[in-house]
Write a structure and sequence with these properties.
Structural class: alpha/beta
Protein name: ABC transporter ATP-binding protein
Bound molecules: adenosine-5'-triphosphate
Membrane topology: Multi-pass membrane protein
CATH topology of the largest domain: Rossmann fold
Strand content: 5-15%
Helix content: 55-70%
InterPro entries: AAA+_ATPase, ABC1_TM_dom, ABC1_TM_sf, ABC_transporter-like_ATP-bd, P-loop_NTPase, Type_1_exporter
Distance between the termini: 71 Å
CATH class of the largest domain: Alpha Beta
GO molecular function: ABC-type oligopeptide transporter activity; ATP binding; ATP hydrolysis activity
Subcellular location: Cell membrane
Number of strands: 10
Strand order of the largest sheet: 6-7-8-3-9-10
Length: about 575
Amino acid sequence: MKNKSFANIFKYSKKYIKIQFFLLIPTVIAVLFPLIRPIVIKQFIDNILNKDIKIILSYVFLLLGIVVVERLINFFSNNLLYKTINNISSKEKVSLFKKIFKLSLKDLKKYTSGDILSRVLQDTDELSQTISIVYLVIFANILQLISAAFLLFSFSYKLAIIAYSTLPLFYITSKLFDKKIKNSSINERKTNSVLIESFREKLSGFKTIIGFSKKDHFLNQFEDDSIKDKNAKNKLIFYTRAQDEFISFIYNLIPILILGIGGLLVQRKEISLGTLIAFYSYIGWLNHPIQMLSNIVISVKKSKETLKRIEEIYNLPEDEHNGNDLLESIKNIELKNISFSYEDKEIIKNINLNIVSNNKYSIVGESGSGKSTLLNLLPLFYKDFSGNIFINNKNIKEYDINSLHKKILYVSQNEFILNDTLKENIFFGDTFSEKDIKKAIEYSCINDFLPELEDGMKTVLGENGSNLSDGQKQRITIARAIIRKPDLLILDESTNAIDSKTEEKIFDSISKIIPTIIIISHRLSTIKKAENIIIINDGKVLSKGSHKDLLENCKEYSRNIESQLLH
Ligand SMILES: Nc1ncnc2c1ncn2[C@@H]1O[C@H](COP(=O)(O)OP(=O)(O)OP(=O)(O)O)[C@@H](O)[C@H]1O
């Protein structure tokens, strides 16, 4: 339990142990090869008094050769190491992103986009720096410590004991900074998420911010977030650097001790000058692994917090769906005693409804009454409702989710537009025949503005369709849905930016190819397109019927029509 951070990182790193194993050979060579140099140096110094210039020259060339080989080995092994870190980082990003796509909408909505971005793009990077090499670094540096010990003890056991007796000091120093590094690391990750979200938010609200002349206000806000992040980073740097310097101080003490005590031993002729110089130059082989090990300890401490953030996402339950039955076609949908809450707030309250194929339905109700939430349950965007939904008398949860999503499509007013061509926005990962695409653009009235687009179907629409009007974007998202010919199409205010005449044309056309349509709208002309109108009030069905019936029998409806809808 004592060092949970190490345990967690080791556990997580296990999946990359094989890769680290393959890196072992070049790393071990890179660690052991440099050990030759001090042996040669010792020989060199002890032979200096020979007065033979040839011997001196041959030693110089030998040392030169050793240094060249050392650098080459180092280059290849480091190159391999950093490539591995990058590969693992890329794998971690993809894996976390895949996990995010398995979450329920409800869980995902608990996080800001900035927070998710920071976890997927930055935390994985930081974590990979540690997990890709933790075993390797520890193994290689312990190997270097042991091999250096072997040589140092063989040179002079007295000097070696002095050098190695300083090792516990490193551990004590590391412990001293434990808590500080942990807390500042948590804080730095948080402020970084806030900063990314702040940036994303301000950028997406650019137009509104300019429109309300609030540039300075929001720029100041961003600056504040940036300063908070900078301060958190500085604090983390302060503690990690301070720990690093403490450790450096200790290992800078070692050579002084060695020179002092070693000098005495030379004077007493217990060791040769060559031995002292070789020992002295070997101190680097003692210091280097200690420095590397202390660096990995710092990385593990920092990564522990990053790992927590990543594991928090991995530990979220996947949006399980065990249904396997293929939904061939929809004949009827029955909602029985449906209730649903976001957190503790009950939004849908015991709703019973029947939706029969080859009919059009309009859902009407005040803003916030629960219309969208109710229809979000049909494609199972939220599954934790109480009550049951039956399709063709079979529980909706027994159907294979992909087949369900082929038959029920939901189009909202602000549907997502890819920064890609018009064609790709309609295809959306599938392919369709020329005939299908022609029909889809005709039925969704894209034909009306297609000639204006510079590259026709190949026109790139910009980020979230920034090169288009809202009504044009809505027509594209409708085309994306109707080309797939679902059995049930849910249009949630998805024509509210389109003029009534065009909307009329769209409805007439899509009614020919889509058997069942449910419309949410505040516009009377749209509502009236359905023969069945369902009035939702405070999460309950208040009344049902045709426009005429409701006008006659439902006061709420006629009041609403008079006050806000009818013109
Ligand atoms: N993700 C969410 N988390 C928590 N509450 C939510 C969430 N989405 C919607 N709500 C709440 O649920 C209630 C119903 O929202 P819903 O969007 O279903 O209403 P609506 O009838 O479609 O409204 P509108 O006509 O304005 O689109 C509202 O009070 C809203 O605040």
